[in-house]
Write a structure and sequence with these properties.
Aspartate Aminotransferase, domain 1, Aspartate Aminotransferase, domain 2, 2 domains, seven-stranded mixed β-sheet
Length: 449
């Protein structure tokens, strides 16, 4: 590796003051190189990255197949505007996606640049298709920071702080113990039963079901705390939407492309199909690309010209995505996800069971390599019946100690939660190093009190 770069350090110091303060940042340095699950900053410090750009670089940093595809495409044509003509990778991407959709009814696509934009289009699509004005979203759900997307986001108030939001949005409780005010050890079937009652009540008291265009739901609540949706809950939403003539939109922006151990998180539910699905993040391994897919009969409700975008379906980004789909065909990515998932879950469950650290941890949850550890608050302590004093700011302290050991990790949700979202190609040795750092950090905070 090269020595620390003084020129880059000077560049950072001279210009970071001009970056908007509205951005938060985990690491106040420049990342100059990445390879697989590792990154290096301008001071030549190496980190194992358990963030993957918030679930974007699913195949790791600078994956050689993606890099080769991008170089090849940029030497041919860098962009073909989607309203003017097709590009080769745009059509190749559709060809590769059609066979791997969670249901064969999902056969008509639109590509945009970001997950939030995909949600914006999905909102227009369902309202136009049903001629209904209102939307039901999930408490704790996250769908983006743009105007309409943030209006159906319920994970944190910061995403709509000081701004007006879109009307006609109603939030239903998600089967998550926080949402329902019960113990974290409440059985799943009880959580689902309570959430069903609340959704039925919502359409009796707050909004007529005949005025609801769609229900939006993540198969794993993302920024709201990495909470998997029980299969029975998703099946109930499917039945509920069919009963009332609503569309069901499943947001796989963060969960798609292998993140949960299957290509799509909704594939964990047998005989389940959404009407509309959004996806992004891992699609192009770091290049800006997102998608919306639905049945053609629904997509045909959107008149030509009502959607578009200068950069939508960029040829380079599509070429990267084609390479991503090919890697999934030829390499054991999903097998590695499930093996590394067991590795980190074993570590976290051991911490929750250990007499030394159990009093700090309220919940361990997730699916595949979308993993969370929630720490206790006074409420959580009381709900679970634990005893003894509870340390303050557990998550932030644990996070700092993990980062100090050379591991990037992020927090999430309005509760005290750390999430682990590494590249899907992380090795057994790299995960072992990360698990060792996590264990050390939690145990040290427990000792400090």
């Amino acid at each position: 590796m090269p020595a620390p770069n003084a020129n880059l350090s000077a560049l950072l110091e001279a210009n970071k003051k001009h970056v908007t303060p509205a951005l938060g940042r985990l690491h106040d340095h420049i990342i100059v190189r990445g390879e697989g699950a590792r990154v290096w900053d301008e001071q030549d410090k190496e980190y194992i990255d358990l963030t993957a750009g918030i679930g974007v670089t699913n195949l790791g940093h600078s994956h050689p197949a993606v890099t080769a595809a991008v170089i090849n495409q940029v030497q041919q044509v860098s962009h073909v505007q989607c309203s003017i003509a097709y590009s080769v990778p745009y059509l190749q991407l559709i060809e590769n996606l059609v066979p791997i959709m969670p249901d064969k009814s999902l056969d008509t696509f639109f590509f945009w640049n970001s997950g939030a934009e995909a949600i914006e289009f999905a909102l227009k699509l369902v309202k136009r298709a049903t001629q209904r004005p209102n939307i039901i979203c999930m408490q704790g759900g996250y769908h983006g920071r743009t105007f309409a997307a943030s209006s159906i986001t319920r994970s944190k108030t910061v995403y709509t702080l000081g701004s007006q939001t879109m009307g006609g949005v109603y939030a239903a409780p998600f089967p998550y113990w926080h949402s329902l005010g019960v113990s974290p050890d409440t059985p799943e079937e009880e959580l689902v039963a309570m959430a069903k009652i609340q959704l039925e009540l919502l359409v009796k008291q707050q909004v007529a079901p005949s005025d609801v265009a769609a229900i939006f739901c993540e198969p794993v609540i993302g920024e709201g705390g990495y909470v998997p949706a029980p299969a029975s809950w998703l099946r109930f939403l499917r039945e509920f939407c069919d009963k009332h003539g609503m569309l069901l939109v499943i947001d796989e922006v963060q969960t798609g492309f292998g993140r949960t151990g299957k290509m799509w998180a909704s594939e964990h539910v047998e005989n389940f199909a959404p009407d509309v699905m959004t996806f992004a993040k891992g699609l192009a391994n770091g290049f800006p690309l997102s998608g919306v897919v639905s049945r053609r009969e629904i997509m045909e409700k959107q008149e030509p010209g009502t959607i578009g975008g200068t950069y939508a379906g960029n040829a380079i980004a599509c070429a990267a995505a084609v390479a991503v789909t090919e890697v999934f065909k030829t390499q054991p990515i999903l097998e590695n996800v499930n093996a590394r998932s067991k590795q980190i879950f074993d570590t976290l469950h051991a911490l929750r069971a250990s007499p030394k650290t159990a009093n700090l941890i309220a919940d361990v949850r997730g699916k595949g390599l979308m993993v969370a550890m929630e720490f206790r608050t006074d409420d959580a302590l009381t709900q679970r019946g634990a005893t003894g004093p509870i340390p303050k700011d557990i998550g932030k302290r644990v996070q700092k100690k993990i980062i100090d050991q050379g591991i990037f990790v992020l927090t999430t949700s309005c509760f005290d939660t750390i999430r682990f979202i590494p590249p899907l190609v992380i090795t057994e040795e790299e995960m072992a190093a990360a698990c060792k750092a996590i264990t050390s950090a939690v145990e040290e905070v427990a000792r400090e009190g």
